[in-house]
From TrEMBL:
This is Putative transcriptional regulator. It comes from Desulfosudis oleivorans (strain DSM 6200 / JCM 39069 / Hxd3) (Desulfococcus oleovorans). PANTHER family: SSL7038 PROTEIN. SUPFAM superfamilies: lambda repressor-like DNA-binding domains (SSF47413). GO terms for molecular function: DNA binding. It holds the Pfam family dnstrm_HI1420.
Length: 92
């Protein structure tokens, strides 16, 4: 019998605002800028890109492009997406 495997996608396991917030906090504390952008992408997929795009005031296509692996979002986009995810950026 051949074993079937499936790629792990953390977005499938982020089910609550608290889990998303904790995930983003951990990445912000331990990762770099590209890790945080990737984490925003993951969190947005967990909620739904269309919903996050609407809340952030950007198009769905623009959101995908900005948060893609080779994307280079402006700070305003990162800020809007973070707020749309129910979080805020803080300097401590």
């Amino acid at each position: 019998m051949k074993l079937k495997t499936k790629s792990f996608d953390i977005a499938e396991h982020l089910n609550t605002p608290e889990e998303i917030r904790g995930f983003l906090q951990e990445v912000a504390a331990t990762g770099d800028e590209s890790d945080f952008i990737h984490a925003l992408n993951t969190a947005a997929r967990a909620i739904g890109m269309t919903e996050v795009a609407k809340k952030a005031g950007v198009t769905r296509a623009s959101l995908y492009k900005s948060l893609a692996e080779d994307g280079n979002p402006k700070f305003i986009t990162i800020s809007k997406v973070t707020k749309a995810l129910g979080c805020k950026i803080a300097v401590v």
